[in-house]
Design a protein that fits this description.
Layout: H1 6-14, H2 21-31, H3 40-82, H4 87-101, H5 105-116, H6 122-149, H7 154-185, H8 197-217, H9 220-241, H10 250-253, H11 262-276, H12 279-284, H13 286-291, H14 301-310, H15 313-348, H16 350-364, H17 368-387
C-alpha cells in the first residue's frame, strides 16, 4: 500500500519522471529565447549610406554648376576645336566620350551643360545624349571581355555585351529619328517644367557661392575639368549609397519564372536602372548572371529595353537644374521616343525582334574574326560621325 501523502501525490503527478525541480529550472533558463536587438554595425551602414547619398547629391549639383560655368567659357573652344557643327558630329562626340568615361550619365550631363551655356543647339544636344547612351552599352561588352579573361566561357561572357549593343542600337536609332521630328515640329513645345523653389534655394545658398569663388580663382578650362571630375566623384558617391547590385544578390537569384515573361523582365530592367541611376551598372549585372546560367540570353532583351528608359532619370534632373525647361524638354523627348518604340516592340513584335537580334548576335560571336570586326566597327562609327561634315 502506498504511503504517500495527498500533497506528495499531487506533486509527483505534475513532475516528469527522472527530473528534479532544480534541473527543470536550470533548463528553462537556458532555453528561454532572448529578444534580438538590431546590431549597431547594421545601423551604421545605413547611416553611412544616407551620408553618401546627401554628399553625392550635393557634389552632383555642384558639378553641374561648374560644368555650366566652364562650358560658357571653354565649351565653345572644345566644340570649335573638334568642329562639332552638325547633328551627326554631336552624335559621334557623345558616343566617343561615353567610351572615354566608361559611362553615359556624365556625358549626358555634359551635353545638358553645353546646351545651357549656348554651346550646342537643341538638336545637337539631343544627338549627343543619344550618342552617350549608345556608348554606354559598349561598357557591357567590356565587362564581358574581362569576365572571359577570368576563365569563363567566351560565348556566355561576351554575347551579353553584344546583345546590349544590338538591342540599344535597334531601339535608339529609330527613336533618334522620331525625336528629331518631335523637336523640329514643336510637338512638346508647350510642355514646361522648372526646378522647385526649395531646390533653387539650396543651389543659391550653398552651390552658387562656391562656384563664384572658383570662377574668380580658376580659368574657364579649369572650371570645366573640375566639373567633370566632380561629376565622376558624385556618381561614385551615389554608387556607394545604393544597395549592392551583383549576381550573388538573392534578389537576382529569386527571379525564377519571371525571366520567361518579357513584360516582367522589362519592368525589372527599368526598376534596377531606376535605383542605380546607371544603365552601365544595371546591364553589367547581366554578364555574370548569364555566365553562371541564372539568365538565358534570349530572356534579357526586354530587361535591356527597360533599362534603356529609366537611365534618363538622372539626365532629366540635370536638365532641370542646369538647363531649365528647354533642356528638360529635350531629354523628355528622348525618353518618350525610346519608351514608345520599346513598348511597340514589346507588345506588337517582340518575337520577330528577338529572333533577329539573336541571329545577328550569333553571327558576330561565331569566331574571333567576326567579333574583332564588330568591335572595330563600333570604334570607327563614332569617329566617322565626329569627322564627317
Amino acid at each position: 500500500m502506498n504511503s504517500m501523502t495527498p500533497e506528495r501525490w499531487a506533486q509527483s503527478e505534475t513532475e516528469p519522471v527522472g527530473t528534479s525541480p532544480v534541473l527543470s529550472t536550470e533548463v528553462s533558463k537556458v532555453t528561454t529565447p532572448q529578444p534580438v536587438e538590431p546590431t549597431r554595425p547594421a545601423l551604421m551602414i545605413w547611416v553611412r549610406k544616407f551620408a553618401y547619398l546627401l554628399l553625392g547629391l550635393t557634389v552632383f549639383i555642384l558639378a553641374l554648376q561648374l560644368l555650366k560655368q566652364g562650358a560658357g567659357v571653354y565649351g565653345g573652344s572644345i566644340v570649335q576645336f573638334l568642329n562639332i557643327s552638325s547633328f551627326t558630329n554631336a552624335l559621334g562626340f557623345g558616343w566617343l566620350l561615353a567610351y572615354l568615361f566608361l559611362s553615359g550619365s556624365p556625358v549626358a550631363a555634359v551635353a545638358v551643360s553645353f546646351f545651357a551655356s549656348g554651346t550646342l543647339s537643341d538638336l545637337q544636344t539631343f544627338a549627343m545624349i543619344t550618342g552617350s547612351r549608345l556608348g554606354a552599352s559598349f561598357i557591357v561588352l567590356f565587362v564581358g571581355f574581362i569576365y572571359y579573361l577570368r576563365g569563363h566561357q567566351r560565348t556566355a561572357s561576351i554575347a551579353t555585351g553584344v546583345l546590349a549593343l544590338l538591342t540599344t542600337a535597334a531601339i535608339y536609332l529609330p527613336a533618334l529619328l522620331l525625336g528629331y521630328y518631335a523637336l523640329t515640329s514643336g510637338m512638346l513645345g508647350g510642355f514646361q517644367m522648372q526646378a522647385t523653389t526649395p531646390l533653387a534655394s539650396v543651389i543659391d545658398m550653398l552651390i552658387v557661392p562656391i562656384v563664384d569663388s572658383a570662377a574668380r580663382l580658376l580659368p574657364g578650362w579649369a572650371l570645366f575639368f573640375c566639373g567633370i571630375g566632380s561629376l565622376l566623384l558624385a556618381f561614385s558617391l551615389l554608387d556607394r549609397a545604393l544597395p549592392e547590385m551583383n549576381a550573388e544578390n538573392s534578389a537576382f537569384r529569386r527571379i525564377g519564372r519571371l525571366i520567361y515573361r518579357p513584360a516582367a523582365m522589362f519592368v525589372l530592367g527599368a526598376a534596377v536602372t531606376g535605383v542605380t541611376l546607371s544603365v552601365s551598372v544595371s546591364l553589367a549585372v547581366l554578364v555574370p548572371l548569364s555566365a553562371k546560367g541564372f539568365v538565358r540570353r534570349e530572356n534579357i532583351l526586354p530587361y535591356i529595353m527597360g533599362a534603356n528608359i529609366t537611365t534618363f532619370i538622372d539626365t532629366l534632373i540635370a536638365a532641370l537644374i542646369v538647363g531649365g525647361p528647354a533642356a528638360f524638354t529635350i531629354v523628355l523627348v528622348e525618353m518618350l521616343s525610346v519608351t514608345l518604340l520599346s513598348l511597340l516592340v514589346l507588345f506588337l513584335g517582340y518575337r520577330p525582334f528577338e529572333r533577329a537580334i539573336l541571329r545577328l548576335q550569333a553571327l558576330i560571336t561565331r569566331n574571333n574574326r567576326t567579333l574583332a570586326l564588330f568591335l572595330g566597327i563600333m570604334l570607327i562609327i563614332p569617329i566617322i560621325l565626329l569627322l564627317v561634315n
